[in-house]
């Protein structure tokens, strides 16, 4: 394989969210072998990207700790390479208005994600606060009302159970991806991690076969399908494994390091 870039999901891939360790930072949940694998990838001329559903402000510590300066955030809506914005696709105001209307009617809380912070608003906020706590994510800014923001929004999360997610299905521009029992991403149908990867590869003059991607969740399916080699972690959702070219060991069993070794990347 002639791999030039490697894309890594964060939660469940780089970060072992299910670790029983008491930790004060994400870096404490990154296996030492993963840190070493990323160092060796760079030594071998392979540029690592973080590719996550998180907003940029939520991965600053990981970027510093792993010495990575290229990333795709908010499930592909915002991408940066070497400090330069490569791609962005904020939600249109019309789409935000549709989402807010449904949320208000059904008393559903929403998490708004710009690049610099995130805001939780609406009713029944404890539903999403529990989901964020389970993922060890920082506490959001709290607002009571669902107000129109005066900044660009790159991702929306709604607090609904599996039984109630159908309320958003009439919104034609949205696709629903569940990431917690009480939380769903409301993603634009035209955007994904895969979309951002395609733009990056095109701007770098690379082909899909020059890229590898590692993930564990349903929002990683398109990403794994877009690159030449898609790797599902051993702890990944079973559906994702069906779309992988290679299934690694779990994150907590040195999955990334061993996969990179097996694939001849390090």
UniProtKB/TrEMBL annotation:
Gene Ontology MF term list: hydrolase activity
Keyword Hydrolase applies: yes
Pfam families associated with the record = Hydrolase_3 (PF08282)
Q: Which UniProt keywords apply?
A: Hydrolase
Gene3D superfamilies according to UniProt: 3.30.1240.10, HAD superfamily/HAD-like
Please verify whether the record's keywords include Hydrolase: yes
Extract the InterPro entries matched here: Cof, HAD-like_sf, HAD-SF_hydro_IIB, HAD_sf
- What's this protein's name? Cof-type HAD-IIB family hydrolase
């Amino acid at each position: 394989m002639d791999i030039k870039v490697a894309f890594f999901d964060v939660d469940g891939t780089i970060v072992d969210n299910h670790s029983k360790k008491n930790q004060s930072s994400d870096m404490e949940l990154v296996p030492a072998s993963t840190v070493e694998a990323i160092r060796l990838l760079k030594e071998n001329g392979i540029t690592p990207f973080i590719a996550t559903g998180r907003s940029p402000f939520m991965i600053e510590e990981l970027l510093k700790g792993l010495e990575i300066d290229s990333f795709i955030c908010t499930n592909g809506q915002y991408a940066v390479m070497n400090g330069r914005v490569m791609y962005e696709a904020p939600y249109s105001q019309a789409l935000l208005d549709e989402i807010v209307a449904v949320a208000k009617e059904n008393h559903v809380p929403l998490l708004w994600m710009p690049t610099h912070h995130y805001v939780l608003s609406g009713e029944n906020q404890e539903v999403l606060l529990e989901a964020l706590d389970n993922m060890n994510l920082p506490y959001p800014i709290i607002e009571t009302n669902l107000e129109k923001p005066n900044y660009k929004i790159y991702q929306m999360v709604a607090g609904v159970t599996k039984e109630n997610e159908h309320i958003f299905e009439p919104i034609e521009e949205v696709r629903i991806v569940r990431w917690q029992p009480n939380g769903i991403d409301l993603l634009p149908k035209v955007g994904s991690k895969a979309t951002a990867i395609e733009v990056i590869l095109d701007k770098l003059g690379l082909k899909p076969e020059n890229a590898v991607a590692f993930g564990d969740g349903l929002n990683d399916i398109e990403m794994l399908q877009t690159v030449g080699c898609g790797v599902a972690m051993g702890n990944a959702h079973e559906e994702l494994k069906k779309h992988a070219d290679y299934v690694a060991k779990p994150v907590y069993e040195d999955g990334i390091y061993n996969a990179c070794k097996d694939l001849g990347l390090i």
